[in-house]
């Protein structure tokens, strides 16, 4: 099986390869099926990518979708189609226009997901927006540096805390306070801080500091901070 490597300015047709490496300003026209895809330069793929591993250290533009076992974005990537990956880690910037599915999604940089995100384990310590539903068994969010937005959140265990950083505490007067915003948050065990939501629904609900909640519906237990603003709460 051949390798495809573009080091300078160049373009190639799609196809099946062992390895695809884009080091310069490279364009691949067509679908790509490979063991690994590396983008260290500025790469464009005008098609879908199917790979075992995808690693983006430079700047990538995918005008199709990605199906892979592992996707790591350390640079920046824009993907027009859906992303399906067992493990997806975003340390740089990712603009994903479609659906995201997989086992594990870690956000340590900045991510924008246009549609639904369905994974087993979701963890974020960066900034993110999700245009649809975030659905996961375990959801761990540490907000810092601005507002992260999700339309709806559903999961078994949902936790939103504030990321503690000396640098961030020094910069706090210069940036907007960290916050998670959602229309609906629904799960079995929910623990929130610095969160704005219209409706929170769960078995056990713990509302911490700096929360602004419209309605809380709980089955078993509700605990709330004195600094939290809750318009209405009811046991169901």
TrEMBL record:
InterPro entries tied to this protein: BacA/B
Source organism, top-level taxon: Bacteria
Pfam family, any one: Bactofilin
Similarity comment text for this entry: Belongs to the bactofilin family.
PANTHER family: HYPOTHETICAL CYTOSOLIC PROTEIN (PTHR35024), POLYMER-FORMING CYTOSKELETAL PROTEIN (PTHR35024:SF4)
Protein name, UniProt field: Polymer-forming cytoskeletal protein
Organism: Bacillus swezeyi
């Amino acid at each position: 099986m051949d390798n495809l490597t573009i080091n300078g300015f160049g373009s190639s047709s799609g196809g099946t390869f062992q390895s695809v490496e884009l080091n310069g300003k490279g364009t691949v026209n067509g679908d790509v099926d490979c063991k690994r895809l590396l983008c260290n330069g500025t790469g464009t793929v005008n098609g879908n990518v199917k790979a075992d591993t995808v690693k983006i250290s430079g700047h990538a533009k995918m005008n199709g979708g990605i199906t892979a076992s592992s996707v790591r974005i350390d640079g920046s990537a824009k993907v027009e189609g859906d992303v399906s990956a067992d493990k997806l880690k975003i340390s740089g910037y990712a603009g994903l226009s479609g659906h995201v599915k997989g086992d594990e999604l870690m956000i340590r940089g900045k991510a924008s997901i246009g549609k639904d995100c369905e994974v087993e384990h979701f963890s974020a310590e960066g900034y993110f927006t999700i245009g649809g539903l975030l659905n996961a068994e375990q959801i761990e969010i540490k907000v810092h540096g601005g507002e992260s937005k999700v339309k709806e959140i559903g999961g078994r265990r949902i936790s939103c805390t504030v990321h503690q950083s000396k640098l961030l505490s020094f910069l706090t007067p210069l940036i907007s306070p960290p916050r998670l915003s959602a229309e609906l948050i629904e799960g079995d065990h929910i623990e929130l801080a610095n969160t704005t939501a219209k409706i929170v629904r769960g078995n056990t609900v713990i509302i911490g500091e700096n929360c602004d909640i419209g309605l809380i519906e709980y089955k078993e237990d509700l605990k709330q901070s004195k600094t939290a603003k809750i318009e209405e709460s009811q046991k169901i």
